[in-house]
Design brief:
The chain is built from 20 helices and eight strands. The protein is α/β, with parallel strands linked by helices. It has three domains: 83 residues, SRP54, nucleotide-binding domain (Four Helix Bundle (Hemerythrin (Met), subunit A), Up-down Bundle), CATH 1.20.120.140; 181 residues, 3-Layer(aba) Sandwich (Rossmann fold), CATH 3.40.50; 134 residues, 434 Repressor (Amino-terminal Domain) (Orthogonal Bundle). The two termini are 26 Å apart. 46% of the residues are buried.
Length: 441
Amino acid sequence: MVLDNLSEGIQKAVDKISGKSLVNEEVIKEACKDIQRALLQSDADVELVFDLTESIKKRALDEDPPEGLTEKEHVVNIVYEELVKFLGKEEAEIPVQESKILLMGTFGAGKTTTAGKIAKFYKNRGLKPALVACDTYREAAYDQLKQIGEKLDIPVYGDADEEDSAAVLKDALEEVEEEVVIVDSSGRDALNDDMIEEITTLNDILEPDERFLVIPADMGQQAGKQAKRFQEELDITGVAVTKMDGTAKGGGALSACAATGASVKFIGTGEEMKDLEKYDPERFVSQLIGYGDLEGLLERVDEEEAAEQAKKMMEGEFTLEDFQSQMEQVQSMGSLDEVMGKIPGFSKSKLPDGMIDMQEEKMELYNYIIDSMTPEEKEDPKIIDSSRKRRIAEGSGTDVENVSELIKLYRQSKKAMKMFKGGRGGMKGNLKKMMKQFGGF
């Protein structure tokens, strides 16, 4: 899961509130200390973190719960709302329309990979993208972008032998016919005069609709300083934060960008081309707190052409046979840890023992179990009693414990999905039900 340490720290604070019969000043202060510790370890700015927790404490102690919420639900909701403000407030707006996009950033930020991911983002939404290789400074940058384009079946314009990025862009614009033009520019070790001059020239030629700054998450709070400088020099329209999968500092990078007013548009969550998400602080905080990101998961499922199954699962009306198909989709979408982290109600503490480490071997075992069931058992697992479990275990070459574990996981899935029928996951509209499900109220 992205930002495991930060997520575990925030969830610890929420669990501390949820587990108490009475939420008093001492409980609130302890929870705030956990939040502080988690965010500071994520390299968030000290002053911003203390401002955040002071705001949580003040609201939790001064505000009365609104009608329909218990005191505990109200305090957890305050934590959620304040974290959303801390990490960006509003969902990124990315119009899906004809666009010209200029990417910029220093060496090692991941601009070229991000160019491919953004191209795939638009392609998945029905537009025809093109990539332009204007990084003439870094050796093999053209070849890297060309390989990405071939993998995605997206055209790449450029000239490996041309050293003038402006000439590359002018030639490309004369040829390009695609609806979305994404330009990968040259980086430097730091934002210097040469880099500013080159990007300004490309900007004047392209006249882009979007100017995205690409920043690696491992910059932590330094990301804010770089975003502010680029904003002052080049008037960026948004930020793409990369490498969120391999750093403990992602929370610092996001909060730093938010503090400077730089709007985070995308976050890169892995090395694959599919590992790019439109940034939504509400969904992001929902994951941190442990409420999942069902909408994000369904977007991934859409990309795997299984939308119909996903809708059926969302309704909570699915059989074990449907569940088997869903497990196959999980295997195609990434690690179980990553996927289950997006499903509301499934945190590491709530899964069966060892479930979070389940890989292909365990999924294959579950497939054998379901294959050994009768059509009636797949349709209605409630009829599977002790004798049926023994028969299924023998037929699948497993044991009764494995059969029980599978049925438990299926029931958890069905219960969680039913709770979210008719709306997106997260806090809005489902808070009270969610608190009862996740906090044991």
